Amino acid sequence: MATKADFNADEWSTVVEGPLFAGLRVVGADRGGTIRESLAIGRVYSQARQAQGQSELLDQLVSSPPAVDPKRLQGEGDIATASSDRLREALSLLHEKGSAEDVDAYKRFVVGVAQAAAEAHKEGSFIGIGGKQISDKEAVALDEVSAALDQQESHGEQAGS
I want to staple 124 with a disulfide (CB 3.0 to 4.6 A). Which of 41, 130, 131, 137 is the partner? Predict the structure, then answer.
């Protein structure tokens, strides 16, 4: 099992930023609901803090304030690219320094953050009536997050073969 102590400052920052980037990818996918989506991301972190003990790595991750260094965003292009890149980097570090349980817990947390952002605001509704729980653009963003998580796994398996 990996802990924060297993990573240098830059590596830990990458691991901490991954879930936030996934949430930002979904928030930025479609207009509307930004405040609700941001609050939903915060609730996922809060719930994870309350459910401590399932993963020491996640306990330490959610205890680290989620933030994105604007300097690291420069040259990344757009949030979709930055999100995919950061998730791949974080998973690469976790495959290298953590256990399979750490990687699985991290992936579940990332998906939970992205899913919470997507479900926080009905798209296309009028005063809460009608609309879709998850917009088409948000569904694409969720697929991209999942693909980044799955792509890293297939690279990790190939490297380990």
Answer: 131
